[in-house]
């Protein structure tokens, strides 16, 4: 999918991967693979292997697997140096970024030179790609779209031009839910392709990506269910399918597909004796597996997947960015279940090569976790100092230069840290009894969260919407709390924590029949949960006592955490983070 190559939809675990800086001619030869779909575009060549490798590159392009697509297109060019479309593919697979401007320009120059004498479709595809290579995806957008529309008009039965245009136009959704520029047009193109080419794997991958960030991800549910059989060797497609299934609340199926993505990646690495950082999907799949376990109440499972990610990162050399991604995955698991002391002591040693963005994110995670820990023990002065330190970090990171490529951008980190700082500040104000200031801070956190760029680091604090709902419950604004809780549960219908919040809001509103239904849903979602979760005990207590009002939600003492890490000792904690 061109959208994934030109606009990354998630940050990369590794800031650098093998072959990224190699010229196209020096890329190692890949094997021809099955299980990547059956996309085919007839190109002008007399070398069967060149056609085969070109088709493999095209299939990988649809998956957004740029590294393998480059290898396939480079091998097609080696098999037939006169194949213009091989250089077309190399220009597109390079994506965007100033580092690769010269590489893209050289590839498209060769494609234009060799395109004379090829078919009309090939020539027009090369010309359209040259518009992007010369002007970039922003400045060349209009001309590229017009050229592709002309191509679609000339070849209405050919799926590839329509799919390439749709893949380029996919632009997600804005913070207020409005589709991005070109998104509805792309969805119309894909809807028609689903009708005319129902077994085209690239179409189903694009359809899943089109609806994943929307308010209606279930629209692409059928495609997500089909992808494991259509693209069994394409881990990026499996990752997209698992992500969508997790989003619609089908955690068991999602985990099965995400585990398959890890297995496929490991088999790919073993088959070609490649380093771990080349795997396209395994690290992200492990993060999602940890998140999925947390949603269904499996604290031990969430920790286990996070630690597998940590082991994988350490085995690949322990790049600072990768260490951070693994550490924040474990921190998120601890915080989700309320074990802040364990979150505060997750190791995050980055070494001397860490960037400003990496050091800033590490310090922010530590400050936030220690702030939550201090809040739970009543050391409100320490929490206030943690909030001040987080605010100072936001200013420092906001003034740092932008980064490019896979590396974390300091300004994206600043946005994420600001959300965490406001969420912690709002919780502190609520504890002090100032519900007005608490609501203001948490409302700001919620607005900032909605404006986070998808290429930034994952949010490491508690969800602001859930925190705001709980603050409203404590301040007597039950109806407003219920609205927020229902909104959050609608986004994550498979999350037991969200449904528990809805149930408690219904109890606060004296809607006992609705609460009984909600607690039954919680018990179903958490049927395989760790047995000592306080929320699980509350749900069981309500079910055992029936609809007997607020008293049915008696306080259940917190269980001892499974991870027995200790929090910071002493009352006078120091909130400025130094060193590793």
Top keywords for this entry?
580 residues; mainly alpha; 26 helices
Please sum up the structure shown.
InterPro entries: TPR-like_helical_dom_sf. The protein has 580 residues and is mostly helical. The protein has helices at 2-6, 48-63, 66-79, 84-93, 101-114, 120-139, 141-154, 159-169, 183-196, 201-211, 221-230, 235-247, 251-272, 282-295, 299-315, 320-336, 340-344, 356-376, 380-398, 410-431, 435-450, 464-474, 478-491, 496-508, 512-525, 534-545.
Notes on the protein architecture:
This is Tetratricopeptide repeat protein. It comes from Corallococcus carmarthensis. There is one protein chain. With 580 residues, the protein is mostly helical. Among the domains are: 2-169, no CATH class; 318-462; 477-557, no CATH class. It has 26 helices and no strands. It has helices at 2-6, 48-63, 66-79, 84-93, 101-114, 120-139, 141-154, 159-169, 183-196, 201-211, 221-230, 235-247, 251-272, 282-295, 299-315, 320-336, 340-344, 356-376, 380-398, 410-431, 435-450, 464-474, 478-491, 496-508, 512-525, 534-545. The longest helix is centred in the middle third of the chain and has 22 residues, at 251-272. Mean pLDDT is 89; it is low at 551-580.
Which SSEs are present, and which pair or pack?
Elements (H helix, E strand, L loop, with lengths): L1 H5 L41 H16 L2 H14 L4 H10 L7 H14 L5 H20 L1 H14 L4 H11 L13 H14 L4 H11 L9 H10 L4 H13 L3 H22 L9 H14 L3 H17 L4 H17 L3 H5 L11 H21 L3 H19 L11 H22 L3 H16 L13 H11 L3 H14 L4 H13 L3 H14 L8 H12 L35
Helix pairs in contact: 2-3, 2-4, 3-4, 4-5, 4-6, 5-6, 6-7, 7-8, 8-9, 9-10, 10-11, 11-12, 12-13, 12-14, 13-14, 14-15, 14-16, 15-16, 16-18, 18-19, 18-20, 19-20, 20-21, 20-22, 21-22, 22-23, 22-24, 23-24, 24-25, 25-26
């Amino acid at each position: 999918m061109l959208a994934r190559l030109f606009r990354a939809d998630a940050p990369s675990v590794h800031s650098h991967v093998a072959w990224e800086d190699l010229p196209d001619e020096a890329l190692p030869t890949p094997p021809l693979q099955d299980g990547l779909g059956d996309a085919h575009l007839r190109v002008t060549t007399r070398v069967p292997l060149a056609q085969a490798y070109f088709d493999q590159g095209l299939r990988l392009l649809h998956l957004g697997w740029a590294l393998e697509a480059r290898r396939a297109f480079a091998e097609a060019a080696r098999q037939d140096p006169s194949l213009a479309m091989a250089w077309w593919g190399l220009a597109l697979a390079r994506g965007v970024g100033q580092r690769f401007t010269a590489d893209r320009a050289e590839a498209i120059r060769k494609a234009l030179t060799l395109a004379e004498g090829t078919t009309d479709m090939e020539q027009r595809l090369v010309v359209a790609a040259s518009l992007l290579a010369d002007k970039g995806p922003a400045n060349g957008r209009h001309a590229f779209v017009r050229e592709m529309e002309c191509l679609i008009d000339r070849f209405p039965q050919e799926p590839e031009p329509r799919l390439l245009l749709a893949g380029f136009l996919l632009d997600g959704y804005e913070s207020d839910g409005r589709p991005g520029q070109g998104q509805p047009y792309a969805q119309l193109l894909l809807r028609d392709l689903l009708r005319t080419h129902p077994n085209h794997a690239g179409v189903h991958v694009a359809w899943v990506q089109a609806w994943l960030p929307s308010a209606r991800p279930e629209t692409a549910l059928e495609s997500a269910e089909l992808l494991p059989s259509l693209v069994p060797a394409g881990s990026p497609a499996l990752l997209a399918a698992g992500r969508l299934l997790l989003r619609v609340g089908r955690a068991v199926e999602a985990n099965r597909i995400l585990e398959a993505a890890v297995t496929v990646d490991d088999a790919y690495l073993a088959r070609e004796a490649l380093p771990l950082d080349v795997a396209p999907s395994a690290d992200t799949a492990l993060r999602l597996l940890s998140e999925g376990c947390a949603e269904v109440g499996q604290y031990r499972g969430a920790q286990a997947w996070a630690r597998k990610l940590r082991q994988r990162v350490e085995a690949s050399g322990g790049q600072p960015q990768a260490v951070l991604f693994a550490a924040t995955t474990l921190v998120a698991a601890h915080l989700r279940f309320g074990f802040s002391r364990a979150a505060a002591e997750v190791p995050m040693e980055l070494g001397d090569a860490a960037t400003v963005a990496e050091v800033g994110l590490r310090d922010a995670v530590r400050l936030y976790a220690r702030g939550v820990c201090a809040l739970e023990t009543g050391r409100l002065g320490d929490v206030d100092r943690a909030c001040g330190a987080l605010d100072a970090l936001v200013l420092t990171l906001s003034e740092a230069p932008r980064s490019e490529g896979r590396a974390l951008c300091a300004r994206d980190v600043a946005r994420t840290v600001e959300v965490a700082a406001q969420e912690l500040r709002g919780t502190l104000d609520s504890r002090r009894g100032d519900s007005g200031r608490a609501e203001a801070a948490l409302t700001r956190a919620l607005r900032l969260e909605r404006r986070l760029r998808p290429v930034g680091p994952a949010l490491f604090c508690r969800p602001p919407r859930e925190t705001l709902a709980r603050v409203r419950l404590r301040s007597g604004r039950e109806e407003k709390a219920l609205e927020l809780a229902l909104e959050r549960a609608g986004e994550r219908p498979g999350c037991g924590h969200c449904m528990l919040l809805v149930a408690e809001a219904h109890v606060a509103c004296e809607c006992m029949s609705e609460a009984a239904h909600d607690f039954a849903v919680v018990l179903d979602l958490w049927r395989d949960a760790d047995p000592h979760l306080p929320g699980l005990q509350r749900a069981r207590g309500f079910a055992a006592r029936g609809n007997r009002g607020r008293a049915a939600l008696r306080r259940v003492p917190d269980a001892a955490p499974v991870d027995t890490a200790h929090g910071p000792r002493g009352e006078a904690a120091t909130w400025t983070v130094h060193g590793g």
